[in-house]
Design goal:
Shape: globular
Number of domains: 2
Strand content: 35-45%
Distance between the termini: 23 Å
Order of helices and strands: EEEEEEEEHH
Oligomer: single chain
Largest sheet: 8 strands, mixed
CATH architecture of the largest domain: Sandwich
Structural class: alpha+beta
Number of helices: 2
């Protein structure tokens, strides 16, 4: 199955894969060749992509997935390989978000801080689970 992964900055990946696991608003789904067409929101989380016998793991920061007859397209805010995650930066972002949540200076700030905390926790989790995969 052909997969294209795009971010606002670049084309991250384009190629043939055997399986894609991703977290959407409806929950985690697996996409195999011949999957029925769908469009869904992608949540901040991790994706697993299988190519041959190798499984690749990535941290994502939300976006949209479109599954078509002949290809799947992921439009993501951000995507990182575990080995590319700056763990110190992720831990600092987590601390900043937690501090902002303690202050609770307004609804918009709280929502932004919650989103930042979610992204930081996801990056830390993916780094710790998959950095040696």
């Amino acid at each position: 199955m052909k997969l294209v992964i795009l971010t606002p900055r670049k084309k991250f990946f384009e190629g043939e894969i055997d399986l894609l696991n991703i977290v959407t608003l409806a929950g985690e789904i697996g996409i195999l060749p011949g999957h029925y067409p769908l469009i869904s929101v992608v949540k901040t989380g991790s994706i697993h992509m299988k190519i041959g016998d190798k499984v690749h793991f990535f941290a994502t920061s939300g976006g949209v997935i479109s599954v078509e007859k002949d290809r799947t397209v992921l439009l993501l805010e951000a995507i990182e390989r575990p080995e590319d995650i700056d763990i110190k930066r992720a831990e600092e972002a987590k601390k900043r978000a937690e501090e902002l949540l303690k202050q609770q200076s307004g609804e918009v700030d709280v929502l932004r801080a919650q989103a930042a905390l979610s992204r930081a926790l996801n990056r830390i989790e993916v780094y710790q689970k998959y950095r040696d995969s």
